[in-house]
Amino acid sequence: MKILVACEESQSVTIELRKLGHEAFSCDIKKATGGHPEWHIQGDVLEQITKEWDMLIGFPPCTFLSSVQTHLCRKSIDRTIKRIEAADFFMKLMNADIERIALENPAGVMKHIFRNPDQTIHPFYFGDREMKRTCLWLKNLPKLVHYKAATLFDEQTHTNRPEPAFTWINKNGKTKNDYFTYCKNSTERSKTFP
Question: Where are the domains of the chain?
Fold first, then answer.
């Protein structure tokens, strides 16, 4: 299949798709950092969306779409405008004239202004011992399959659910867990697990 991987400068997904025999290309306004500039389209992904692609896998920027931004948007008209622009970009990708589409984003505003995600996953479902709630919106694609335990026909894909890195108490006195042990900053935190 000919696959466009939108908003991916790292080329992590593109490289894996290439290993499976697909003609995959990453596309981002940033330069490719995955070591294969020949598989990268640097520029606006919206200019690349045409019927020639069999599939679009997108990682639209979540800076203004995530749940974390909700309280910040209430205090800033500039952030609210950026959230509207980010949601518009997400919807342009989702409504692209491409037969198969998968968009990834954390839980956030798209659930409220578009629809619930088709699937919510964590890295530990697929062997990476981390928690990171990731939502998938799908068009003409099946959900990812994962198994908590081995069966007669399928091997276990889950690792043990990780323990929180630390626990803290929020302003309302509720206990909150923090699982993000693997990243030093928000750029690392936004990367897709292998």
Answer: 1-59, 61-95+104-136+147-194
